[in-house]
Design a protein that fits this description.
With 328 residues, this protein is α/β, with parallel strands linked by helices. The protein has helices at 25-33, 65-68, 70-74, 79-94, 113-122, 143-153, 169-175, 181-193, 211-221, 241-247, 256-268, 299-310, and strands spanning 37-42, 98-103, 129-136, 157-165, 197-204, 228-233, 236-237, 275-278, 288-290. Bound molecules: iron/sulfur cluster. Iron/sulfur cluster (SF4) is lined by residues 48, 50-51, 59-60, 63, 65, 106-107, 137, 163.
Length: 328
Amino acid sequence: MANDQDSAPVAQPNVFDPPARYYALSAYMRREFGGTVRKISVDAHFSCPNIDGTVGRGGCVFCDAASFSPSRQIGLVEIDDQIADGITRLQRRFDAKQFIAYFQPSTNTHAPVDVLERVYRSALRRPEIVGIAIGTRPDACPDPVLDLLATLARETWTTLELGLQSSHDRTLNWLGRGHDYGQFVDATMRARARNLQVGAHVILGLPGETREDVRTTARRLGTLGLHSIKIHHLYVVKGTRLERLWRAGEVALPTLEEYADLVVDFLERLSPETVVERVAGEVGDEYLVAPSWTAIKHAGRNAVDKALRARDSYQGKYYDPERRDPYA
Ligand code: SF4
């Protein structure tokens, strides 16, 4: 096993075809579905345990559920209408013919199982929908819900997306997440035991985290057989607790270049088989406070590509497949 600090890591070969340096979602979709597949954001109007009092009431420090999802911004309530609207919009914009229904805002497993099944299946009616992705929290994945998802996974492409953000409990505390890293590991293991595809969401450049902390999170996640990862930067949305902290000077955000370097550090320690769905966050201009580069289309992705080239690096360069302990 590699040493914990990987101060003298052994470089693995680049398994991607140049110029690719990480396993981008578009490449995965082409391989899996033979063409372009776009995700349609669907809002089932579920609540969140970290807001409705089940776990907490304050929500995460950065949270404004409306800013996360086009579906919530449009205000359509019926799932059928959201799917139909998404297909029309994305067909026009991307010439896509296949779509995945992505239950995105809030906690999409936070309801009785029979309700969940009805809602999930209602999103799968149109023939253009080739799969389903369920975004949720690690502490909202009881066994009956995972059993339902395992049943769906035998019928269609299915992924469970777990919001983690960091593997460091002190950071999760600061974020007001209301769950710890152990709950993420537990939910992931139970889902993987059912052959479910699991994706994780992380934020890099969080207050109080060092570069080594970011590398540790990547190394830990590399042990869990994740199907996919979404990497975000910390951006400040209007009206959130984070906005107040940022305006008070209590939160510093990394520069674009600093962030891109953190993403490269992270990718280097991730399994090359994990699909990278995004390398920076996106939010509508009407919600954004900072950092200003968030508003520049593809600024994050371009900066990460540039940093990968400058460091002659790639996903999995320092990945250790022998590493087994998700806590080490
Ligand atoms: S878990 Fe998600 S929806 Fe709930 S408060 Fe946090 S960011 Fe918002």
